[in-house]
Design goal:
By secondary structure, the chain is mostly beta strands. Helices cover 0% and strands 51% of the residues. The protein is globular, with a radius of gyration of 13 Å.
Protein backbone atom coordinates (compact mmCIF):
# COMPACT_ATOMS: atom_id res chain seq x y z
CA UNK A 1 0.00 0.00 0.00
CA UNK A 2 1.18 3.51 -0.87
CA UNK A 3 -0.32 6.68 0.54
CA UNK A 4 0.09 9.88 -1.47
CA UNK A 5 -0.52 13.44 -0.28
CA UNK A 6 -0.31 16.42 -2.63
CA UNK A 7 0.40 19.99 -1.62
CA UNK A 8 1.36 23.30 -3.18
CA UNK A 9 -1.77 24.18 -5.09
CA UNK A 10 -3.33 27.61 -5.00
CA UNK A 11 -4.41 30.67 -6.92
CA UNK A 12 -1.93 32.28 -9.30
CA UNK A 13 -2.12 34.80 -12.12
CA UNK A 14 -1.50 33.78 -15.70
CA UNK A 15 2.21 33.67 -16.40
CA UNK A 16 3.02 32.77 -12.83
CA UNK A 17 4.51 29.64 -11.31
CA UNK A 18 3.62 27.00 -8.76
CA UNK A 19 5.44 23.97 -7.44
CA UNK A 20 3.38 20.96 -6.48
CA UNK A 21 4.70 18.32 -4.12
CA UNK A 22 3.56 14.78 -3.49
CA UNK A 23 4.71 12.96 -0.37
CA UNK A 24 4.55 9.18 -0.37
CA UNK A 25 4.51 6.73 2.48
CA UNK A 26 4.14 3.01 2.70
CA UNK A 27 5.88 0.66 0.30
CA UNK A 28 9.26 1.34 -1.22
CA UNK A 29 8.77 4.57 -3.13
CA UNK A 30 11.61 3.90 -5.56
CA UNK A 31 9.75 0.82 -6.84
CA UNK A 32 7.11 3.00 -8.46
CA UNK A 33 7.04 5.23 -11.48
CA UNK A 34 5.07 8.37 -10.67
CA UNK A 35 2.65 10.50 -12.61
CA UNK A 36 0.83 13.79 -12.33
CA UNK A 37 -2.68 14.06 -13.72
CA UNK A 38 -5.28 16.80 -13.68
CA UNK A 39 -9.02 17.06 -13.96
CA UNK A 40 -10.96 20.20 -14.77
CA UNK A 41 -14.70 20.48 -14.06
CA UNK A 42 -16.71 18.55 -16.61
CA UNK A 43 -13.63 17.00 -18.18
CA UNK A 44 -11.91 13.65 -17.97
CA UNK A 45 -8.77 13.15 -15.96
CA UNK A 46 -5.77 13.78 -18.17
CA UNK A 47 -2.10 12.92 -18.00
CA UNK A 48 0.29 15.80 -17.32
CA UNK A 49 3.73 14.31 -16.64
CA UNK A 50 5.41 11.12 -15.50
CA UNK A 51 8.80 10.01 -14.22
CA UNK A 52 10.51 6.64 -13.97
CA UNK A 53 11.35 5.03 -10.66
CA UNK A 54 14.97 6.18 -10.75
CA UNK A 55 14.12 9.47 -12.38
CA UNK A 56 16.07 9.11 -15.59
CA UNK A 57 13.05 9.02 -17.87
CA UNK A 58 10.31 11.61 -18.05
CA UNK A 59 7.16 11.94 -20.12
CA UNK A 60 5.02 15.03 -20.71
CA UNK A 61 1.72 15.89 -22.28
CA UNK A 62 2.16 18.11 -25.32
CA UNK A 63 0.14 20.84 -23.63
CA UNK A 64 2.73 21.29 -20.86
CA UNK A 65 6.02 20.55 -22.61
CA UNK A 66 8.53 23.31 -22.04
CA UNK A 67 6.49 24.78 -19.17
CA UNK A 68 6.24 21.99 -16.58
CA UNK A 69 9.03 19.89 -15.08
CA UNK A 70 8.58 16.71 -13.09
CA UNK A 71 11.24 15.51 -10.66
CA UNK A 72 11.57 13.15 -7.73
CA UNK A 73 13.69 12.71 -4.65
CA UNK A 74 13.61 9.07 -3.56
CA UNK A 75 15.48 9.89 -0.35
CA UNK A 76 12.55 12.10 0.62
CA UNK A 77 9.85 9.85 -0.87
CA UNK A 78 8.61 12.80 -2.88
CA UNK A 79 7.76 13.80 -6.41
CA UNK A 80 7.40 17.37 -7.63
CA UNK A 81 5.81 19.26 -10.48
CA UNK A 82 7.28 22.68 -11.25
CA UNK A 83 4.75 24.63 -13.29
CA UNK A 84 5.87 27.79 -15.07
CA UNK A 85 4.14 30.13 -17.51
CA UNK A 86 0.78 29.01 -16.19
CA UNK A 87 -2.31 29.56 -18.31
CA UNK A 88 -6.00 29.72 -17.33
CA UNK A 89 -6.51 26.40 -19.11
CA UNK A 90 -4.15 24.79 -16.58
CA UNK A 91 -6.84 25.30 -13.94
CA UNK A 92 -7.75 21.90 -12.49
CA UNK A 93 -7.39 19.57 -9.55
CA UNK A 94 -3.95 17.99 -9.80
CA UNK A 95 -3.36 14.44 -8.64
CA UNK A 96 -0.21 12.43 -8.19
CA UNK A 97 -0.31 8.72 -8.78
CA UNK A 98 1.98 5.71 -8.42
CA UNK A 99 2.33 2.74 -10.76
CA UNK A 100 4.31 -0.41 -10.02
CA UNK A 101 6.41 -0.13 -13.17
CA UNK A 102 9.84 1.15 -14.10
CA UNK A 103 8.51 3.64 -16.64
CA UNK A 104 5.55 6.01 -16.39
CA UNK A 105 2.44 5.58 -18.51
CA UNK A 106 -0.05 8.24 -19.64
CA UNK A 107 -3.06 5.97 -18.98
CA UNK A 108 -4.78 6.74 -15.67
CA UNK A 109 -6.17 3.21 -15.32
CA UNK A 110 -2.62 1.81 -15.19
CA UNK A 111 -1.94 3.54 -11.89
CA UNK A 112 -2.33 1.68 -8.62
CA UNK A 113 -2.46 4.49 -6.07
CA UNK A 114 -3.78 8.06 -6.11
CA UNK A 115 -3.63 11.08 -3.88
CA UNK A 116 -6.62 13.24 -2.97
CA UNK A 117 -5.63 16.09 -5.25
CA UNK A 118 -4.73 19.75 -4.89
CA UNK A 119 -6.55 22.63 -6.58
CA UNK A 120 -4.68 24.87 -9.01
CA UNK A 121 -6.48 27.96 -10.23
CA UNK A 122 -4.93 30.29 -12.81
CA UNK A 123 -6.62 33.65 -13.24
CA UNK A 124 -6.45 35.62 -16.47
Amino acid sequence: QVQLVESGGGLVQAGGSLRLSCAASGRIFSSYAMGWFRQAPGKEREFVAGISWIGGNTLYADSVKGRFTISRDNAKNSVYLQMNSLKPEDTAVYYCAAVSRRLPTPRPYDYDYWGQGTQVTVSS
